[in-house]
C-alpha cells in the first residue's frame, strides 16, 4: 500500500475517532447538548458553505462551456434551500 494512502486513511480514522468521542461526550449531559447543537450546526453549515464558495463553485465554472447554466443551478439551489428552511 502506498504511504500516501496510509496517511490519508490514518487521518480519516483519527478525525472520525475525535468526532465519535465528541458525540459521546455531548450525549452524556443533555443541558450542554441542547446549548451546543445550534453552535455545531452553524459550524457545519459554515464549513460546507465555505467549501462551496472556495472550491466547488469556481471549479464548476471552469469545467463547463456555458457559465450561465452553472449560475442558474446555483440560484435554483439557494432558492430551494431558503424554501426548505422556512419555519
Automatic annotation (TrEMBL):
Main location per UniProt?
membrane
Q: Which keywords are on file for this protein?
A: Membrane, Transmembrane, Transmembrane helix
Which sequence ranges are marked TM in the entry?
6-26, 38-57
> How does the protein associate with the membrane?
Multi-pass membrane protein
Q: Where in the cell is it found?
A: Membrane
Matching entries from InterPro entries are given as:
ZIP, ZIP_Transporter
Which superkingdom?
Bacteria
The family database entries (Pfam families) matched by this protein are listed as: Zip
Instruction: Cite the GO molecular-function annotations of the record.
Output: monoatomic cation:bicarbonate symporter activity; zinc ion transmembrane transporter activity
Recorded GO cellular component terms are: plasma membrane
What are the GO BP annotations of this UniProt entry?
intracellular monoatomic cation homeostasis; zinc ion import across plasma membrane
**Which named protein is this?**
Zinc/iron permease
